[in-house]
Design goal:
Blueprint lengths: L2 H17 L4 H16 L8 H9 L14 H33 L3
């Protein structure tokens, strides 16, 4: 994908995260990757918090692997995801707004 396409995808994920915590880990992980693609590294950019969360949550299942996981593991994972959402909600919201402000005109 081109950098412009990455910016469009970032805006789509940012909007979705502002609307809902659905697919939180998937969207956060993707935003971390996009930040790395745009800047080389996501650190010290509007994508920074997504890199932090993705690093902290790299053991949690993405949506595509959830059907392969045990119910017990999913319950533990979902509890941890809710804790991450709660802890990072303000930072994620601010980062999403920053991404939309910077890239929504692409």
């Amino acid at each position: 994908m081109s950098i412009e396409q990455e910016k469009i995808a970032a805006c789509e994920h940012a909007k979705a995260l502002l609307d809902s915590n659905s697919l939180f880990i998937d969207r956060v992980t993707e935003l971390s990757y996009i930040g790395n693609k745009i800047y080389g590294q996501c650190w010290e950019t509007e994508f920074h918090v997504f890199g932090l969360i993705a690093s902290e949550a790299d053991h949690l299942p993405l949506e595509k692997v959830r059907p392969l996981c045990s119910q017990d593991f999913l319950e533990k994972s979902d509890k941890e995801i809710l804790e991450l959402v709660d802890f990072y909600s303000q930072d994620v919201g601010n980062a999403c707004k920053a991404i939309l402000s910077k890239f929504s005109n692409v």
